[in-house]
Amino acid sequence: MSDSVKRGRTRRADAQRNRELILQAARNLVHEPGELRLNAVAKACGIGQGTLYRHFPTREDLLAEVYRHEVEELVATAPRLLATHQPLDALAAWFDRVAAYARIKRDVFAAFEAATWRDLAAHSLGPIGEAVELLLAAGRSDGSVRSDAEARDVIVLISWLSRLDDAELDARGPRLLSILVDGLRACRR
User: Fold this and answer.
1) In whole angstroms, what is the distance from residue 76 CA to residue 63 CA?
2) Domain of 28?
3) What is the mean pLDDT of the chain?
4) What pLDDT does 115 receive?
């Protein structure tokens, strides 16, 4: 293998690593008070601003990708949980992950103009709805989830989590999600 091919692979691997570092730093910093500043993200990653701008030319591009990445992780969690848990337990564990997603959603959307966050929300509704339906369908199939449970209803209910501040989300979030799981539970007679 030539040195130029090896260097090309290294740059691609480094570029992917830098992108992941940028997204993680932005995810952590978006929660901080004030505007998310790109120079703070670059500093937190230990990379130059030029590297950051090659990946994300604008603050909005970075915020949108933080949100998309969070949605992808949330959606990917559903089938993994179903592979290792009973459906209702998988749903309850997925709701724990929803609470973390709600924080990111709230903070990212607070940093955006209204038109931009509506576009992001519309983009994520389909994949999140599919993940909820996957979990509900597994529970309906094994009889642990009530037969009339619909993904849209669950999404409406969990969407309120992103409206809670951190203290309230920490204090009430687990209880609210537990109530939701109990409400989705099929009645056993």
Assistant:
1) 20
2) 1-57
3) 85
4) 47
